[in-house]
Amino acid sequence: MSKADNCTTPIRSRRAFLASMSIAAAMPTVAAVPATAGAVLVVDPIFAAIEEFRRADAAVIAAFDVVPEDDDLTENALCRRDAAHDLVVCTRPTTPTGLGALTTWARERMDWLRKYGTSFEPDKLYAISAAIDDAIKALIGRLA
Known about the structure:
Blueprint: H1 3-8, H2 14-26, E1 31-34, E2 40-43, H3 45-66, H4 71-90, H5 96-116, H6 121-143
Helix pairs in contact: 2-4, 3-4, 3-5, 4-6, 5-6
């Protein structure tokens, strides 16, 4: 599976589709915001994607801690986290600081997957690795 395939793979369920739509609606696009006279602050979209993943991951933990027998609650939380994961790996950092945030997030995910991963996780490992590789190549291309 190529990186492009991962970012265009059909959503796995109606719930995952709805979760991804709510995340996409909340995501800012890369925007230039005036900071001071003549200066421009560029907002890197990777920060919002990572933050959404962190919120979705916390919701999964809360769903299992609060009501472990509520299958709908846990399924919704898991679908939201999967959609947020896909959003992170499909969002390209636009700044060196954003690239650093992506690599830190990837290290955290690799650590988690090493400890708790399941049989379907190799695709996620590949997607994370491909996201970093693609982001670095894009950033180098802009610097050249």
